Amino acid sequence: MAVHIIKAQIDETLAAAPLQGKHLVEPLKSIAAQTGFPLKVLEDVAVVNEAEIHKTEGDLWQCVEGEVEFICGGELVDPRFVKRADGSDNTDELKAAEIRGGVKTILRPGDWLWIPPGEPHVHSCAGVARLLIVKIPR
């Protein structure tokens, strides 16, 4: 099914007041949930996220607001599988508290970052950062 996202929907998403923590922003969050549309807006406000690996999909990021630090590559320290809703291990998704030996990249508005499937990565920000994220299957 084709999905048409109009500029007003993106503007509405970016006009929302920032909230503490890490979350997806409406209305794109609901549009993605209802249609499978792969684009979302992630908002981080003063967060340090867990490191992760997605074995079957890559992440294409664009910074639209703020500044965010990514660490990519290296290796996860004490990785664990992500749990599915039923409690079983999702062996395609790994998390860890940190990465050893990665490369730091700072994204600012307009910058893009491609993280291929299987590459360890983590991101954090001191203030408000809004990022477009597109999940791209292998």
Q: Helical segment tally?
A: 2
Q: Could you name the CATH topology? A: Jelly Rolls
**N- to C-terminal distance:** 21 Å
CATH homologous superfamily grouping: Jelly Rolls
Strand content: over 45%
What is the string of SSEs from the N terminus onward?
A: HEHEEEEEEEEEEE
The helix/strand class is mainly beta
Q: Into which percent range does the helicity of residues fall? A: 10-25%
Q: Measured on Cα atoms, how large is the radius of gyration?
A: 15 Å
Shape summary: globular
CATH architectural arrangement: Sandwich
Which CATH class applies here? Mainly Beta
How would you characterize the largest beta sheet? 7 strands, antiparallel
List the uncertain runs: none
Mean model confidence by pLDDT: 92
What is the tally of beta strands?
A: 12
Summed up, the domain count is 1
Would you give an account of this structure?
The protein is mainly β and 138 residues long. It has one domain (7-137): Jelly Rolls (Sandwich), CATH 2.60.120.10. It has two helices and twelve strands. The protein has helices at 7-15, 28-35; strands at 21-24, 39-48, 51-54, 57-65, 68-72, 75-77, 80-83, 89-96, 98-100, 103-107, 112-115, 121-137. Strands 1, 2, 4, 5, 10, 11 and 12 form a seven-stranded antiparallel sheet that branches. Strand 7 (80-83) and strand 8 (89-96) form a beta hairpin. The relative contact order is 0.28. The mean pLDDT is 92.
